[in-house]
Design a protein that fits this description.
Blueprint lengths: L6 E3 L7 H13 L5 E3 L7 H13 L5 E4 L5 H13 L5 E5 L6 H12 L5 E5 L5 H13 L5 E3 L11
Parallel strand pairs: 1-2, 2-3, 3-4, 4-5, 5-6
Length: 159
């Protein structure tokens, strides 16, 4: 990977776990990459767990977009990485189902990450009870100033 590359958009490809493993090694070694988009690829929950480990250790990464229909354990690993990585300022999770424990872990990560200014949880099948759980993280965040929860399953009581 180029030493001057700052942004990498790999949306809408067929990157599977093996390719993500190689990409993860490059991200680890990158001294300049600040923005990565991996929306609509073919890696699974195990791939997301692997990527989450890299996100935890990369202190230059500012913005990440994922959207791969990742299962709950993968989302928990990603949420933990968000809470751990204090350089991330923008996170977009698109076309994932965020449910169960991952909602609560994500809420805690949002609350504890003092660099996060923008989060998009777009088309994540969030229901009112999920937004209520996430609201704790939203309202206790000291830095968050933009929240996008468009295209979810919200009704009046969730707002």
């Amino acid at each position: 990977m180029s030493t001057s590359l700052t942004s990498l958009n790999l949306q809408n490809n067929v990157i599977e776990n093996a390719g993500l493993d190689e990409l993860s090694d490059a991200i680890k070694k990158s001294v300049s990459l600040t923005n990565i988009s991996l929306q609509n690829n073919d890696f699974d929950e195990d791939g997301m767990i692997m990527l989450s480990d890299v996100i935890k250790s990369n202190t230059r990464l500012k913005k990440i977009t994922i959207g791969n229909f990742i299962e709950e354990n993968g989302m928990i690993a990603f949420a933990n990485a968000i809470g751990y990585n204090k350089s991330l300022t923008h996170v977009n999770i698109i076309d994932n189902t965020i449910y169960g424990s991952s909602v609560h872990v994500l809420s805690k990560a949002i609350k504890n990450n003092n660099s996060l200014i923008s989060i998009g949880l777009i088309s994540c099948e969030l229901y009112d009870n999920d937004i209520t759980a996430l609201a704790n993280g939203f309202k206790h965040s000291k830095t968050l100033n933009f929240i996008d929860v468009s295209s979810n399953i919200l009704e009046r009581q969730g707002l």
